[in-house]
Amino acid sequence: MSAPLWQELAPLLRNRTFTDLTHAFHSGQPHFPAFPDETRETLFDMKKGDGFTAHRYSIVGQWGTHVDPPSHFVLGGRTLDQLPVEEMILPLVVLDISERVAGNPDATPTLDDVHGWEGRNGDIPAGSFVALRTGWSHRWPDSAAMANVDEAGVSHTPGWSREVLEYLIEKRSVSAVGHEQTDTDPGMATSRQDFSLETYVLAQDKWQIELLAALDHLPEAGAALVATWAKPFEGSGFPARVFSIH
């Protein structure tokens, strides 16, 4: 008879580093400009003599660090309740372009970045979660700094590139991707309402996490990612709690 799971798992977790990759959400935080702000009401309050404290939250599903399932952009795509828990614990790959972004906020990853990662670490494992490290999360929660809009109204933020996403999804069969910015597409694209990269990811039946934090605390390879979220029936997005173990 095999040992109980925890007896096998506990030694693997002992002395590991756990890194929270999630921003705590709140009213006034950076968000997609077409969405309303969060409202929060205290229904019961122990400070006022009630026996317990309870809040009512009004938020858009895409709020703070959040998950986008395929149904967010694809009619008939998988909804949050249809994403299996087996996909919530994945090998973590960190693709780092933060140095380039520091000199050019419009920077995006290239195949050279991916091939460089694979040259150091081997092929990106199938079923991985690939996080794009840009350093952009250090701008949180400054909405103006996150949007980085110029005098002409154009946003200058990093994002993914089509060639890299196609390679990750079609050649390496990753399960999901994530990034520190508000959007999958770079700011110059979203400024003209071009969300083609996010559409591409979700149309391949993949999911993604937006507005990740603390990617600079992770190794580029060898960590595991745990991503969890609520299970609204036919949900098209929800705040997520995401962390890594290495």
Strand and helix layout:
Elements: H1 5-13, E1 18-20, E2 39-44, E3 54-58, E4 66-68, E5 89-96, H2 98-103, H3 111-121, E6 129-133, H4 143-147, H5 162-171, E7 176-179, H6 187-190, H7 196-203, E8 207-210, E9 223-229, E10 238-245
Parallel strand pairs: 5-6, 6-7, 7-8
Antiparallel strand pairs: 1-10, 2-3, 4-8, 4-10, 5-9, 9-10
* Euclidean distance between termini CA atoms: 29 Å
Placed side by side, the strands forming the largest sheet appear as: 4-8-7-6-5-9-10
Question: SSE order, as H and E?
Answer: HEEEEEHHEHHEHHEEE
Ranges where pLDDT stays below 50 over 5 or more residues in a row are: none
User: How helix-rich are the residues, as a percent range?
Assistant: 10-25%
Which outline best applies? Answer: globular
Q: What value does the Rg take, in angstroms?
A: 19 Å
Largest sheet: 7 strands, mixed, barrel
Tally the beta strands. 10
Range of strand content: 15-25%
By secondary-structure content and strand pairing, the structural class works out as alpha/beta
The average pLDDT score comes to 97
Helical element count? 7
